[in-house]
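dumping this here before i forget
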Amino acid sequence: LPYVPHVSPMALLGKVTATTFALESPLCVFDGHADASDAVWLAVAFANASAAFRNPPSRADVPRYQGLPTAHSYMTLETAAGAYSCSAPSPAVLRVGGDTACRDQGRQDPCNGPLPSPGPYRVKFLLMGCRGPKAETRWSEPILLRRAVSPSTIVPVPARRGSAVVVMVSILASLGAVLATAVLGALG
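structure:
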């Protein structure tokens, strides 16, 4: 399918963080291709490994989150295809990497765990039926996560203020005190 997934253009807090990003939902993308029993999956891969990704032939072969460090890809966010139809009330964004409970290595269900490095990552949506893949979108452009700042680079002492700032703050504070005195005098 010609659709290319992308980070949501909406102004969102935490649109891209050090471990997650918010994708725009693929609304109306699979209409005409999906049956009621089909599911839409999100494939997540390191950008340099996306070309090597192969669609799994069945749900049992879906690459898991726990295999990301070695396989360089996984699939997550399994959703009924009908949830993305034009007529369905769907969420505007999908948070990739938002499930911190995925760190439990014993979980076998498709997991949406925190992304382990800044990436970059590429994603695509895959429509799967009971007999395997039916349709897929194109890969996204590379998505680079934010990098955490090293604590050693944070300066704990605020920068010195210039004398002009000190004079301005003093004048404003004095005017505030005069105004407060005048208001109290008028009320008294």
